[in-house]
Each structure stands twice: as C-alpha cells, then as structure tokens.
Amino acid sequence: MVDKLLVVPLTSGNWQVAYDGGGQTHFPLDGTGDLVFYPQKARTSGQTFASLILLKSTVDTPVNDFVARLEVTTVSQLRSSTPNDWEVFWFVSNYRKDPKLIKTANYFLQKPNTGVEMGRFFAETGQKFLVTSEAAKLGVGQRSTYYFAKQGKRYRVFRDGVQVLDYQGKEMPESLYDQAGALGLYAEDAVVRIHSFAYRAL
Q1: Measured between alpha carbons, how far is 74 from 12 in angstroms, rounded to an integer?
Q2: Which stretch of DSSP H or E encloses residue 35?
C-alpha cells in the first residue's frame, strides 16, 4: 500500500495557504527542499499564531478515507515565555468549511512532553479531545516519518514504523468526523519543516 502513494511536491502549486499566522510559509521553488512554517512569534501568554496549508487536490476533490506518509520536524517552539505542549506540528484531515465558514476537521499532533493526541476541531475555537497516549512522546527537533490511515471511523498512526495510535470511535461525540474533506498541514507557535508528503485516497 505504501508504494502506491502519490508523492506531492512541496510547492505552492500543490498547496493552498489558508492562513500564515502573521509570518511566512516558505515553499521550495523546485520542490526538492523542505517546506517551512514560520508563524509570527507570540510575545505574551494571550497571543497565539498558527499556519495552515491545505492540499489543493483534496480541496478540489475532497477525500474521506485515505493513507498518507509524512516526514516532518518540529524545529523549535517560538513562544518567548514557557511554550505550551501543543505548540508543534499538527496533521489535519477531513477539513471542511460550510457556506457560513464554519470549519470541521480531525487532527493529530505529537506533543513533546505528553505524547500523541487525536481529536476534532470545529467552529472558531471548538475542540474535542478523543485520545491521548503518553507512551509516544517525541522531543522537539527530532525528525520522524508518520504514516496515517483513516478508514471509516478508525484512524491509525505509525511513527517510524511503530504504531502509536489506533482509535475507533463509535458515535458522536466520541467519533471522528467521517466526511470528505481536505488534508492539511498546521503549525502552532512553532517553526516546522516538512520534508516530504505522499497520499492516496481509498
């Protein structure tokens, strides 16, 4: 299954910037270098800055079930005071906005101190935590390869060949969004380097 994934160049022609966190999203011109998120630096506890890009092919043709492979490094956390554990890279899937611009999506993130987390976010700031695992911690600055597989309400995540999450919710509110949407890459108050991305709709 892995060898059938479509490799997506990390160029602006393939990715749509939803917002840049008041900073920059750097795309390599030839697609052979890294894509880098540089959100604006938060200087007070009340500030937060995040960047989100969406895979254009999945904006045009939304996907529900998929497999994806991603190489990524959360290089550094930007907050000048003590960083929050969630200020790292997030993988976003099944992302939709309705005509009133209300968003819904599933998310996964790798926190340095408390492990992996999966959940849903919705509306402006709504968030539902579904599962966490402290057994899968990973420090800032470490490069890893993730493999994501969503099929129905089941979502599995592998990091460097080891499964770190297997979640299957039954009914709302404990379920993931089982809907066609876009795939996205997100950085919150952190410098993040994306080294490669590939996927396939199921």
Answers
A1: 20
A2: strand 35-38
Give the domain range for residue 13. 2-201
What is the count of structural domains for the chain? Answer: 1
DSSP 128-163: EEEEEEGGG---TT--EEEEEEEETTEEEEEETTEE
Query: Token pair for residue 79?
Result: 């907050």
The residues near 137 (Cβ < 8 Å, ≥ 6 apart) are 111, 112, 113, 114, 115
Nearest to 76, CA basis, from 34, 27, 23, 139: 139
Determine the Cα–Cα distance for residues 23 and 19; give it in Å rounded to an integer.
Answer: 9
How many helices (H) and strands (E) the chain has is answered by 1, 15
Instruction: Report the CATH number that the domain containing residue 171 is assigned in CATH.
Output: 2.60.120.560
The pLDDT tens digits of the residues spanning 112-131 come to 999 999 999 998 778 999 99
Please answer whether residues 34 and 28 qualify as being in contact, where contact means their C-beta atoms are separated by less than 8 angstroms: yes
Reported as a single tens digit per residue, the pLDDT across 171-188 is 899 999 999 999 999 999
